[in-house]
Amino acid sequence: MQIIKDKAITEDTFTTLADDAELTGGDISVSLARWKRDRESLLAHPGKVGVRLQASDAAADLAEDLKHIDLIELDFAEFADGRLFSHAWLLRGRYHYQGEIRATGHYLMDQIFYLSRVGVNAFKPAKAEQLATILANLDDFSVKYQPSIV
Question: How confident is the model over 40-64, as pLDDT tens digits?
Fold first, then answer.
């Protein structure tokens, strides 16, 4: 599947693994719970490793390990919960995370510009037809009144 990363369409190389799935080769993404449980084996994984955060997770739980994590996925379970915006800001602003922060799940197209302002630099669309809309929404506004994290 294609994603938007750094304002360009690119292929998604990550495979999402369930908490009970066997580790596979290549680039993988696991839940925060699995990261905590299988940290040592994931650190030895030959491919890239990503961690999925839910709104109820704490970004601080990853602070010491961010140098080992290539991707943080912010999984929007519902569009009415803004805690993942705070997670992105904390990852970039407080913990100085330089890797990919990707929005997945049920984020709204109207939120894309604002997500990019708090540090999200990649977007996984629900449907391939949304790629052009996501790209366009990254440039929704030409004037910005508040500073951003990026």
Answer: 999 999 999 999 999 999 999 999 9
Q: Which two tokens stand for residue 71?
A: 């991707």
Among residues 71, 31, 32, which one has the least CA distance to residue 48?
Answer: 71
How far is C-alpha 37 from the chain's CA centre?
A: 20
Structure tokens at 113: 């510009």
The alpha carbon of 85 is separated from its chain's Cα centroid by a whole number of angstroms, namely: 11
Q: Is 139 helix (H, G, I), strand (E, B) or coil?
A: coil
Cα–Cα distance list, 135 to 23, 39, 42 (Å): 33, 35, 33
Q: What is the largest CA-CA distance in the chain?
A: 48
Predicted local distance difference test score (pLDDT) of residue 49: 98
User: For residue 105, how many C-alpha atoms fall within 13 Å in the half-sphere facing its CB?
Assistant: 18
pLDDT of residue 18: 95
Tokens of 78: 């519902």
With a pLDDT cut of 70, the percent of the chain lying above it is: 92
Q: Which of these, 48, 70, 64, lies nearest to 121 by C-alpha position?
A: 70
Task: Enumerate domains of the chain plus CATH numbers.
Answer: 2-137 (3.20.20.70)
Q: pTM here?
A: 0.91
